[in-house]
Amino acid sequence: MIPRFDQLSEEELRKILLEQQAILDNASVGILFSRDRKVATCNLRCAELFGYALPELVGLPAAKLFSSHEAYSQLGHTAGPALAAGSGFHGEIQYRRRDGSLFWARVSAKAIDPQHPHDGTIWIVADISEERAVREALAQTTHEQELIFNNAAVGMMFARNRIVRRCNRKFEQIFGYAPGELVGQSVLLLHPTVRDYDEFGSLAYGTLQRGETFIGEQRARRKDGSIFWVRSTGCKTDALGSPLDVIWIFEDVSARHQVEEALAQAHNELEQRVVERTSQLVATNEQLQAEIFERMQAEQRIWHIAHHDALTGLPNRSLLLDRLNQALTQAGRSEHRLAVMFLDLDRFKSVNDTLGHHIGDLLLKHVAMRLREAVRAVDTVARLGGDEFVMVLHEIQTPDDASRVAEKIIEALAPVVLAEGNQLHATPSIGISIYPDDGDEAYALMKNADTAMYHAKAGGRNTYKFFTAKMNEETRRFFGFEQRLRNALLQHQFLLHFQPLIDHARQVVCGMEALVRWQDPEAGLTLPGAFIPVAEETGLILQLGEWVLREALRQNGVWQAQGHPALPVSVNLSPRQFHHKGLVDSVRAILNESGQPPELLELEVTESALMHDANQSLDKLRRLADLGIKLAIDDFGTASTSLAYLKRFPVHRIKIDQSFVRDVALAGEDAAVVSAIMALARSLGLEALAEGVETQEQLDVLRGFGCCQFQGFLFAHPLPPEQAAAVFHPSGLP
Questions:
Q1: What is the C-alpha separation between 251 and 173, in angstroms, rounded?
Q2: Domain CATH code at residue 196
Q3: pTM of this prediction?
Q4: Is residue 553 in some structural domain?
Q5: Are residues 523 and 626 in the same domain?
Q6: Angle at which helices 442-458 and 317-334 pack, to 10 degrees?
Q7: What is the pLDDT of residues 231-252, one digit of tens each?
Q8: Beta bridge partners of 14
Q9: What range defines the domain where residue 210 resides?
């Protein structure tokens, strides 16, 4: 039976207190007694942990030992209820030493008397800063390893008993599976057959069981069933127990195997021939020379494949640069000139898009053959890719020599190319740079020739241009103009003017045509001819065209809300906008957004844009007509529209181009063209409108031909919306 304290002698009590004090003083953890939220007493280790002398710590408010007042309050909310209920508290807390430094400690606390928790609590404090730092470093290392695993350039897989437990994205990509799809699956899926699976297991897992690393190459199977070669490296983990845990690394080595197989096959064939020749002791020296020559041919074939275009057989970029550098070295020694010609086929993309890449490839082969025939044997013709060709003309005397070659190339490509029943035309745009005038190294000459080619294309195609320093200026100016256009779209610098369409027979306005203008901060109000070609070339025309359509419909709604008549508004579609695959969906969405009836929208498409691909144009016009909108052919008479297509196009109006209207009163060819167009419109039941009417004399002649609808300065100039509204009720028409 343990004696009560009141039964012990003073000496026995003193001895017990000394023993307890010895325990406190020698404890490896801090022991602290707290009462009324202050340090009542503590051992020496506790004072050392907090950086205080023992007398300084006693009586100190407990809040001063914490990293912040919020942390102290949070501990009160967490530990207070447990201690008040007589339970213990355990946790990790960040404390503050006397010098302000912070450290982490593992804490255990309990009330001295669970029945009277307010009598004080005892706290056991152990410094775990190093332990926590180790844990955080381990967590960081684990995180870094996870990043390496997920972003590794090789496939990685963890398998247990040949079941996929985990793999990275590269592994899934190699085998063609979606993320997470392989987890839990047998690695049997990765082998071509069950036999391959068993043989690999026998070969690899015996090595792994011995604790050795397995490295091997074997056939594998993707999800789609295709077979390929992988290099696999496996290593058994150090985990104890019966499961066989293996980390695998996989690399796709199919390309190398294909090359090795091809080389092995070629080597075997060659070696077989050598063996056969060796066995024939009577073979002559001539036969031996033939074998050596055959080996050289094989090497030449390999070299040829690496340095020539697979489709046309022309030198590729690598060989071109090598020959151009050699030619530059020679030209520098002999002080001769040379020319670099950069050639691009005009509208080649439409051949691929409409007839298919197979027909496009046939056309490229014909072009390559004609280019080789158009230059000297000493000159180089190379294909860079797509429809881009480069020619290097050696030792020319003057730039005129390059001009003659360019004209010869244009003439050589002029005849029709027949490709599987299709008649194809291949016209080139050619840019020319001259050494040393336009550069003294290969890349500069090719870049300058490329720049000149783009100017040739911009100059009308099927022509050639010599590089000039001004072209770089124009290129920089073009890109600057493009950037200003982009900013104009972002900053809402575009606006619409409207020009009325006049039905003279009824003396009324029968529609309004929306015409875009640019309120350029630098140049002022700018007409579309100055910026539409750049917008068309850069693709900005799509965004601008949608804005014009949306704004025209919005303005028409405003006029209707003001009580003006509900008249159709006409909007021009650029060729690129018309041929864009999303046009119909875009028009439908903007119509729905505006709330305007479709019959109050008329879309104008130029005759040349329609005939660029008549079949595709017919399909798109029908889809637009199905929306309920009206369709008109703009600039009619400037292109060769097939009557067969014109009858099938679902258009209601043709607009006679102003180039015919300008001189219609002179009774010459233009008058005859207008008369023929009017007769054609009547026979097809189409409305005809004359554009660009500026004089009373033009109006009278056009009316004499039976034309009733007009547009031009004679009636009204394009006007801002607020001024254009005044012409809804015209009076005194000419």
A1: 11
A2: 3.30.450.20
A3: 0.47
A4: yes
A5: yes
A6: 110
A7: 999 999 865 555 788 999 999 9
A8: none
A9: 152-252
